[in-house]
Amino acid sequence: MPQTSHAQTPTIQITVINESTVVGDADVVRTVAALQEQVTNDFRPVWGVDAELTIIAKGTQPPAGSWWLVILDDSDQANALGYHDLTSEGLPIGKIFAASDIKAGTSWTVTASHELLEMLADPNINLTVFVQNTNTAGMLYAYEVCDACEDDSLGYEIDNILVSDFVYPAWFESFRPEGSTQLDLQNRMQKPFELLAGGYIGVFDVTAGSGWQQQTADKHPANLLHRGAVGTRRERRSVPHELWINSLPQRKIVGNAQKYRQNLETILQRREAAA
Predict the structure, then answer these.
(1) C-alpha distances out from residue 182 to 146, 178, 189, 241, Å
(2) For 131-163, what is each residue's pLDDT tens digit?
(3) What spatial distance separates the first Cα and last Cα of the chain, rounded to whole Å?
(4) Pairwise CA distance, residues 26 & 24, whole Å
C-alpha cells in the first residue's frame, strides 16, 4: 500500500501523566520509550500519523495544546481526580487503568499501547465504517484499530515491553478477498472484519434501534469486561458528544491527587493498626 513520507506526517504532541499508585515512574519511562518506537516505526508508515510522547513529573502542567495519555489505578480514581472525557482544553485524552489490568491479570502496557494507537486513529471517537446489507439495512463498525486483536497473547514485544497488535486500514474494507493483503501488523488475519480469539468490535445495527453493541469472535454478546469501564473509549462512544465533560484544570487535579494519596495512606495505616 502507499506509505506516507515522514515529512508529510502530522506529529501529535502527547503528554504522558502517571497518577497510578501501582506503576512506578521507571516502568513508565521504559514503556513510553517502547510506545514511541511503536508509533513511529510501526504505526506511522501504515496510518500516516505520528506522535511525540513526553512524560511530565507529577504536579506539572501539561503543555498547552497537547493530548493526554493518563495512567491511573481505576475509573474511580479518574473520577476522583477529575480526569473526564477530554482534556481541560477539550482535546483528546486516553486513560489506562493499571490497577484494574493487574487485578484482571492483563498487561497495562498492552492497554497503554491500545489506547494510544486508537486515540491517534480516531481521536474524536466518532469514526465508523458502514457495511450496507440491503437498501434499507446495514451495520456500522467502530473505527477502533486494536479491538479486533485485543488479547495480550496477540501482542508483540519492543525492548521487552509487550504492546498491542493493530489492524491496517484494509481490515475495514469489505471488498478485500480473503488472503489478498496484510490486515494487521502481526499478519494473523485473513479477511476484513475478522475477529481473533479474545478480540471484539463495536457494531451499530442502523435498523435495530439497539445502539452500540460489542461483537466478539464467537458472535455472542460480549462479557462485562468488553463493555468498558466508565471513561474508556468503548463507554464514551455510546455517549453523545454534547454530554462529554472536560477534565478539571491541572492545578485542581494536583490538589485532588494529593488528597487521594493521603486518603490511601490513612486507609493503609488503619488496616495495619487493626491487623
Answers:
(1) 15, 10, 8, 34
(2) 998 888 899 999 999 999 999 999 999 999 999
(3) 62
(4) 5
Q: CA 227 to CA 221: how far, in whole Å?
A: 10
Residues ≥6 apart with Cβ < 8 Å to 17: 56, 62, 68, 69, 70, 71
Helix (H, G, I), strand (E, B) or coil at 86: strand
Which residues on adjacent β-strands are paired with residue 97?
A: 72
Sign of CA dihedral 202, 9, 67, 109: positive
CA distance linking residue 201 with residue 147, whole number of Å: 6
> Given CA atoms 40, 127, 195, 73 in this order, what sign does their dihedral have?
positive
Coil/strand/helix, residue 68: strand
| Gap between the Cα atoms of 96 and 82, Å rounded | 15
Give pLDDT tens digits for 63-112: 999 999 999 999 999 999 999 999 999 999 999 999 999 999 999 999 99
Q: How far is CA 261 from CA 10, 248, 264, in A?
A: 38, 18, 5
Which residues are CB-neighbours of 99 under 8 A, at least 6 positions away? 20, 21, 22, 72, 73, 74, 77
Residues 30-55 pLDDT 10s = 999 999 999 999 999 999 999 999 99
Residues 18/25, Cβ–Cβ less than 8 Å? yes
> Other C-beta atoms within 10 Å of 271: how many?
9
Q: How is residue 255 written as a grid cell?
A: 490538589
Q: Which three cell numbers stand for residue 230?
A: 466508565
